[in-house]
Amino acid sequence: MTAIPVRARPGAFSVDLALATVALKRRLAYRLNWIFSVVLGGGELLVSLTLWGTILAEQGSVAGYDWDAMRTYYVIGFVTGTFVFSGSDTAQRILDGSVAIDLLKPVDFQRARAAEFYGGLAGSLPTMAVGLTIALIFFTPLPPASVAAGLLTLVSIALIAPIAFSVVYLSTMLCFWTRSYHGIMWARQTVVAFFSGAMVPLAIMPGPLQVLAWCLPFVHFTTTPSQIYLGRVDTLGALGLIAAQLAWAVALWFLGRWLWSRAVRAVTIHGG
């Protein structure tokens, strides 16, 4: 039987909003997790800045980054990391067989999961706000290179969410074949953190790794917004990077639809 795609109806956006709201409430209900995410996220930022502060105090600059640029880079990375690592995923629905019920609902599965992802992401924004406030007080990052750079950085950051959703969605689709998720999740987070530049700026990496990173969508999670913010590309270059982000967002969305059409053929419930 061929699945018939569900078209958006007048009430589709209200369904999206309802799903996002449920995901948001679910995220906010676990206050202890919220506190831990604030502490761990802020601690990771503090460790990175302490390490680079020590290195740059001796060397002055590394790969064109002085202390001012480096601390600004990591503060931006902290903000963008909220969009990359904080959304909800669909792995458990696949592993426990709930996805079979979703097939019977008159709701587009991918779009519904996107709404839940954005709802979970919204629940993490307070964490980001607290961490950013602390960073602004204690580390005083540089202002954007220009007004245009600041505005284009906001556009770039806004485009991170749809790319991040698709990356998570595509990785969870693999659960249809692997029946496991922890390994996939850890591999995804490691690859994303490395090739996005969240661990270290790409400029520090060997040339071949830099080329590979720019061929992947992950580079737009940290490197692209920081390059724009710090003025390392001009306005035309910034628009080119944003266009690349938009292209990745569209391409990954349709790749997700294609993979879903293949994945539903592998649905099993309790081994049946």
From TrEMBL:
Secretion signal, residue range per the UniProt entry: none
Sorted UniProt keywords: Membrane, Transmembrane, Transmembrane helix
TM helices/strands, residue ranges: 34-53, 73-95, 116-139, 145-170, 191-216, 236-255
Superkingdom field: Bacteria
InterPro entries (alphabetical): ABC-2_transporter-like (IPR010390)
Protein name (Swiss-Prot/TrEMBL): ABC-2 family transporter protein
Species annotation: Glycomyces luteolus
